[in-house]
Amino acid sequence: MAGRGRNQCHACTKSGTLGCRATRTPPVTDRSGGYPHYVDVGELELTIRPAHPDEYAAVGAVTVAAYRAVGMARGEYVTQLRDAARRAHEAELLVAVDTGGVVLGSVTFCPAGSTWREVAREDEGEFRMLAVSPWAQGHGIGRALVKACLDRTRALGLGGLALSTPQSNGRAHRLYEQPGFRRDPDRDWAPIPSVELIVYHMRVR
Question: pTM higher than 0.85 for the full model?
Answer without folding.
Answer: no
